[in-house]
Each structure stands twice: as C-alpha cells, then as structure tokens.
Amino acid sequence: MSEIAAKPFPFFFDRPAIALIVIDMQRDFVEVGGFGESLGNDVLRLRKIVPAVRRLIEAFRSHGLPVIHTVECHRPDLSDCPPAKRNRGDPRLRIGDPGPMGRILIAGEPGAAILPELAPGPGEIVIEKPGKGAFYGTDLGAHLDRLGARQLVFAGVTTEVCVQTTMREANDRGYECLLAEDATESYFPEFKAATLDMIRAQCAIVGWTATTEGVIEGLRDAE
Ligand code: TIU
Fold first, then answer.
1. Among 70, 95, 128, 132, residue to substitute to test ligand 1 (most atoms within 8 Å of Cβ)
2. CA separation, residue 158 to residues 59, 123, 132, 192 (Å)
3. Which of 14, 124, 204, 210 is the most buried (most CB within 10 A)?
4. pLDDT for the residue numbered 157
5. What does each C-alpha distance from 139 to 64, 160, 169 come to in angstroms?
6. Does the active-site annotation cover 129?
7. Catalytic member of 24, 81, 132, 177
8. Under 8 Å between Cβ of 72 and 129
9. Residue 191 has what pLDDT?
10. pLDDT value, residue 32
11. What is the block-wise mean pLDDT of the chain (223 residues), using blocks of 10 residues?
C-alpha cells in the first residue's frame, strides 16, 4: 500500500487501483456565455484551478494511470433532460437554447467542449453525463470495473454540485474517494469550504481531501 498525505487521515492506495476523474472542465461552466453564466454565476473565478488540474492529469499520465473526463451535457433532442431540470428557475438561457457557444449544455456544441489545456489524451475515457453525478445514466461504473479502479482522485467543477454528487455516488458504490482541494472550485467560495469540511468530517464519511502536491508526491513515492 502507498500513501497520500490527506485529511482527515492518510489515504492509502494500491497503485494499480487508483484513477483520476476530472469533472466537467468544459467551456459551459468556465467561459462567459455558457450554462454557468446563464444561471447568474461569475464563471471566470473557476479558471484559476486549470494549472492544478493539468498537473494532476500529467502526473497520472506519466505514471500510466487512468484519467477519466466527464462532461455534463444532453442529447440534441433533450430526451435525456428532465423538464424538471430544464424548467428550473429563471435562467437567461435554458438548456438547449442557442447561446454564444452554441446550444447550452448540448453534446457536440462548442460549450460542451473540454478546455483545450485539459483536453483528453488519446484513449482516455470521456463520460457524457445527463445528471450532476457521473454514475447516473452512464457506463462509468463498467469502465472502472474494467480498469480495476477502486480508489478515485477527483478534480473539477463545481465542488458542491457535480464533484460532490459524483463522490457521494462513488462512496456508496464502495470506492474510496479523495478530492484535490486546489484542483476544484465553486462559484461560491463558502460552498467549496463547506463541501471540503463535510466530505472529510465524521471519519471521512464521504472521503478524503489533499493538495495537488500531496497527491503528486504520493504517486511519485509509490513508483
Ligand atoms: N451550477 C453548478 O454549480 N454546477 C453544475 O450545474 N454542474 C456542475 O457542477 N458540473
């Protein structure tokens, strides 16, 4: 077993069983004119995590470990978008409406593209997900089974929505989950802080948190 310095206590992992999951680092959440902004958010504050997410991706790649990317998006006919999701609130643009980056939150549109700095490498799995959690309505679990991955490091946006939802789904499925603190961000700083606290409270009830540097050191020591 190898070890990552983490909170609330060290995260032990088996090198072949660990994988990185990068949640929704797509233009729709990080750039002006996408889904995130249509909900009234200041999206540019999310960009500051890009270098840390990139370091994690490069570290996992350099160790030959799996990197999985997710994208929140819907089919062009919206058949996988519940009206309860589309009709929620009073956004400037609804899912499927035409915006500056194409139709909002629709697969294949420019807004659904992963940021070029974090683009998936050859052979890396990309999960298109209709929900906030990456297990709901996807074959993520089957991919993880095939890879033999049981321990998951998470990065991406937003901390309290898609990242936390996916971590909770994974935790209930028996995966051990660690969130890279400086490689995740929220539109609401107080929600990010609360999410990190609630993940690791109660003896890591949802999982662990660690710095990107801590994760990278742990992977290096495991070589
Ligand atoms: N709105 C918000 O904070 N997040 C989302 O809608 N999706 C993700 O977190 N990816």
1. 132
2. 22, 25, 10, 8
3. 210
4. 99
5. 22, 23, 13
6. yes
7. 24
8. yes
9. 98
10. 96
11. 97 96 98 96 97 98 98 98 97 96 98 98 98 98 98 99 99 98 98 98 98 98 93
Enumerate the β-bridge partners of residue 179: 154, 209
pLDDT at 189: 98
Alpha-helical runs (H) found in 63-96: 83-86
Q: Which three-class secondary structure state does DSSP give residue 56?
A: helix
Catalytic-role residue among 7, 28, 73, 162: 162
pLDDT of residue 111: 98
| Chain centroid to CA 179 | 9
Verify whether ligand 1 is closer than 6 Å to residue 175 (CB atom).
no
Q: Would the CA dihedral through 223, 49, 133, 131 be positive or negative?
A: negative
Give the dihedral sign, CA 204/205/207/211.
negative
